[in-house]
Design a protein that fits this description.
4 domains, disordered C terminus, 52% strand, mainly beta, six-stranded antiparallel beta sheet, globular, 3 helices
Amino acid sequence: MSPAVLPALLGLTLVLPRAQALTCQSGRAVAVRNATELPLEWTVGEMICNEGWGCQDTVMLLENGLQVLLVLTKGCTQEKDQEAHITQHREGPGLSIVSYTRVCRHMDLCNDLSSTVSLWSLPAPVVPGFMRCPVCLSTEGCESATEVTCPISHSHCYNGILKLRGGGISSTLRVQGCMSQAACNLLNKTRKIGPLSLSEKCGVKGMEALTCQSGTLAKVMNVTELPQEWTAGQKDCKEGWGCQDTLMLLENGPQVLLVLMKGCTQKKDQEARIIQHRAGPGLSVVSYTYVCRHEHLCNDLSTTLPLWTLQPPEVPGSVRCPVCLSKEGCESATEVTCPVGHSHCYNGILELTGEDISSTLRVQGCMSQAACNLLNETREIGSLSVSEKCGAKGAQALTCQSGTGVAVSNAVDMPLEWTIGEKICNKGWGCQETVMLIENGPQVFLVLTKGCTQEKDQKARVTKHRAGPGLSIVSYTRVCRHEDFCNDLSTTRPLWSPPPPSVPGSVRCPVCLSTEGCESATEVTCPAGHSHCYNGILQFRGGGIGSTLRVQGCMSQAACNLLNETREIGPLSVSEKCGVKASPTCEKGVVMQLKKNLAKEPMEWNAVSSVTCDLEEVCQETLLLIDVGSTSLIVGSKGCIKTETPNYQTVSIHSGPPGMLMASYTRFCSSNRCNSASSTSVLLNSLPPPAAPVPGGLQCPTCLKFGEVCKFSENVMCPKGTTGCYKGYINIKGGGLSSAFSIQGCMAPSSNSLLNHTDMIGPFHTVEFPQAVNKDHQNGAAPKYPQSGAAPAPYLAWVVGLGLSLALWCGMTTLFTLFPCDS
């Protein structure tokens, strides 16, 4: 039987029958144009999307007097379908913002907006007022901004920076113009438009941070391919950082190594500098370095021309040396006659490290002296660190085949074959490969992991964990260090042979191998001697694999021991549980929203991803509401949880009314995507209807802050029935969140704890620090708090780590955010 060839891109991909994928229009643009050029039109490219993905269109227009900013992004998306939608985020005259968004799946190239006609119409004539403001739209700076007379009722001059991220766009825009209010809110609280994330900062004199050309490359090529040219991406740097260019060429006979690094740096400015570290003939090394801050994208080297010229003809000498430049090995090096004066053969390893570059290079060639000093004592070239070692037989670090795969195939497709990516390992590490096959009648489950390992060498080993007929398991493991890519198994042939014919018995069992579920399992007659039906779940973790498999089939004994006591196969950890339902697939995501009236007005709560739970886990969805009157906070989580109450739902009112309200909703459920509540109304509808507040005689400051201490609070008259002013802090960790809140407000008499001493709400571990509940002031007297504005030590310790906590939160799937995750 001919093997079923299963190709791979950047790792292992098993090619199985698939549904058709959409083709979408694809492209992006950020451009400032004169308003007289509108309407604008465009044409874009195309791209084939992943299965199940849709096509998205996003266009934003920012109009500012005589200029208009166009932001356009088209491509593939996992977001659910959305009809074409036009939103006026800020109306003119003066600064105005309008956007168009759409997600579609009904046909190829459905994201077909090609003009601004549907978004833009000529503005009506404006009545001039008395205020004059500079007007500017620029990705560079506003030093030459023109001052204009603002429309009537526009009495404030806006001066800010917009950052646009997402959908393949990374741009920073300087904006000045006329506004009707003084707030730094050009975006009118908009933080996301389609795949675009938007953030704003006001009152700065110049661009907040430089934008630099960015990219890396390490490539061996033929000398005949020089000179080389390139284009680079862009990156926004931190404030005060500069732009850097680093280029190194190592020439060795007919080959040359090109190493290029562009990006941000903290190093001080440095004029463009070319250094000949080692002159030819023979091996030669030359570099170019530059650091600048005078303008955006100033690190604009785009060719090797400043570094490279054709070498003059060489006079041959009498010594012959192998010549090689390779990231893999020099077994097939060609021997050449060295130039006169080059009487030594160099044999060494160069290690090149820097941001986004980690490369090990094998070098052989002609040198004029015997020392291990190809780099001529150089250890740093711009942002590149270089080191050298000579006389080694092979590279210091192995390059191994690398990739993972999990797939259910038909037994008739066996044997399977695959192709794999590659990875350079840490020094001293070896290459590993692990393959496991579970055969179950007409189906076979394949698990494959290849890569680097610290484990000691182990010869190729085939282990039969459970022999057929019926369910059978076999594995292959190997660890090697003798050469690059030694973990080179590319087929299931060593593990698999067609099973012999079996004699049917009298027992019938359902047969299933699935990563989803076994609802449609087929019942078959088991082989003779197999009198028990197996029904279990296997979990695989490690080596880049995280998978859960539902298994039903024929076994010779009743024990829950399909794995025959096996718990580890190479880097894979395997576990088993029988007689249980398959782990559910749950919706996943977190939500955090801070604004008015969240206790009265429901908001959307839709997850944007899913996750398959571990054994003994079920789905959960949890909401926590904090309302202090002037401001409300909703914190929510969807995902998996391990619990002793797999089917459970509750709404709890921890505090209030009267006074501040703290309430929560928690649901645990065990079916697929059962945590699918789409609105916070699941909590709000269960709360008692709010009564009209009757003012009392107590006045308290109210405040609700995320990640900072309440320092400036608004004093309010508390409702009748409240007896104290609360001031404290609450930490929430778990469910994908790690957050702290500072709270002040009116307190009901029943407790001095907002949480009512609750420490777990769904997946949230909650810790409360009530700093004061002051009940000694009445009739409007100001409350007396110790250490005004200070926080208790545990809270301060948490805030010190807030940057890390936010980074962890921004790495999760977020539905709403208070702050953009890019700085």
